User: What shape does this take?
Amino acid sequence: MRKQKASDRRTRRAQRNGKELDVDDPNQQQQSLTGRSRGITKIFDDTKKKPTSPNFSKLLHPDSTQPKPTSSTRSRSSKRLALYSQINDYQTSQLTSLTSEFKYEESLILERLSSSKDLDPERPLREGEGCYDLLPSLRGELLGDHIYRLQKSDASELFKNGNGKFKPNDYSVITLQTFGLDDRLTSPVDFDSQKFEVVVSGVGPTYIDIVISDQLKFTEVFPEGSYLRIDRYFSKTSYERMCEAVKSFCDVDEEEENMRQYRD
Assistant: This one.
């Protein structure tokens, strides 16, 4: 029964192809069996093929050849070189800014002091940037430094209307009034002036307290009973310390040494 059904199917396929299959011809039966085996083999071969992923380079560049892959990862040496360059640029910009600020502050203060000497002696008092005719007196000692109080002989107010600009930790300069009381000619900008750079520790309506680190030198420069003037000044020491801090922060060798210690 099964053989008859298979024979009928072969006959119908042959008729559809325009050929009449002779069931009694063994050659035609062999050709039919061979064709069936080839078709089955092809089907199995197609199922064994692995699916392929799409070529995205051709989709993105349909009209051009496939581009060569470029590596975006730089070597360690080039990364380190770029980092050193950024650190150097940062250090240069910060030092330039600090120097510009210091030079600008210095020029303003020197211009004010020169103007008070030659053109307007009362300018420091009027702007609250300086005061004349002060007598020093020792107030005490703090952490190895000596505190001196500057005030007028009659203990009157230093600045009218309280417009004094002196504040604690301000950097200032005191200068010996060569011609004594009411001397307005002696100035810190004079080459031969006797001056001493100090830091303000306290301020009141009638006094200004200053810190003296070298009392021996202070007493040599300013004998007892000397009249002094005080002016707000620029701090070169602060500028140098800030520059050193920037250089230390950007010091690559020191940073590598610290990291090496942690690694070891």
Notes: The helical segments are 2-16, 26-48, 56-60, 76-118, 123-127, 215-221, 236-249, 252-263.
